[in-house]
Amino acid sequence: MTTAAPAAQDRPAVLVTAADLAPEALALLDGYRIVYAGKTPSDQDIVDLCRAHDPAAIIVRYGKVGAAAMDAAPSLRVISKHGSGTDTIDKAAAQARNIDVVAAVGANAAAVVEQALALLLACAKSVIALDVRMRAGHWDKATHKSEELAGKTLGLVGLGAIGLRMAKMGAALDMRVIGHDPFAKNLPADVRQVDLDTIWRESDAISLHCPLTDDNRGLLNARTLAQCKPGVILVNTARGGLIDEAALIDAVRSGQVMAAGLDSFAVEPMTAGHPFQHEKNIILSPHIGGVTRAAYVNMGIAAARNVLAALARQAAAR
Description:
Blueprint: E1 13-16, H1 23-28, E2 33-36, H2 43-53, E3 57-60, H3 67-71, E4 78-81, H4 91-96, E5 100-103, H5 109-124, H6 127-135, E6 153-157, H7 161-172, E7 176-180, E8 191-193, H8 196-202, E9 205-208, H9 222-227, E10 232-236, H10 245-254, E11 257-262, E12 282-284, H11 293-317
Helix pairs in contact: 5-7
């Protein structure tokens, strides 16, 4: 005697705070009812969907998940980040409600590091500025001098899966690599662990690869930027809140920062008229470092597997 599969409305729900999820991830969640929040869900949209569908799990791509959303979903057992950064999830509220918070650590590492490297090279080689000049009819070969990265020092803040992969890129460019991460262990021989003051003082280029926390918000500010070498290059593919944006603009305008390549911002999406849009020595990309075809699949699969593992673990513990 066979048992009919439960009707879709009887399956536990998984809320995805986006308009889509990779087919490979959906296949893993075949026993669940998938609810999409849309391309740009507001905090209230997420709360309303939690109240309407009472999901067992939330896969977070866009928007924030706070206490109100958790309280609106009494069946919620796990919040799974479609990526590595969990700063858009209220982890204290989740812990107080016995809700697991998990991340797809390392699933998009290759994609993010390639973006960070692209931004670093674009800054050092004036790629954008020279393209603009060429299109305007100029030929600056006799007057322009780019920066050579070989022999220079690359400072990395954060030595997790992404930071260590960026360290390999730096070493491949014959750069000296130093890094800061209080949680990193068993570092490769070509990465020297240092304190933050040494990062600021010795680096010719700094690349941020750490999560955003209450302790490191505004890590790069007027004081720390002033400690850096004049003409330092700054790359941020982590979280915009790590940088005091007003202080960065001042440092770029003064030449203390030669160029900055930014893929994340304090407020996203960036609104029209943001001061960064008018600075020729700031290269911008819309937080797409981890958005490649391969990373989209890898993060979706990892997020789905994390959901299934957490739900199974909690079920076994009951």
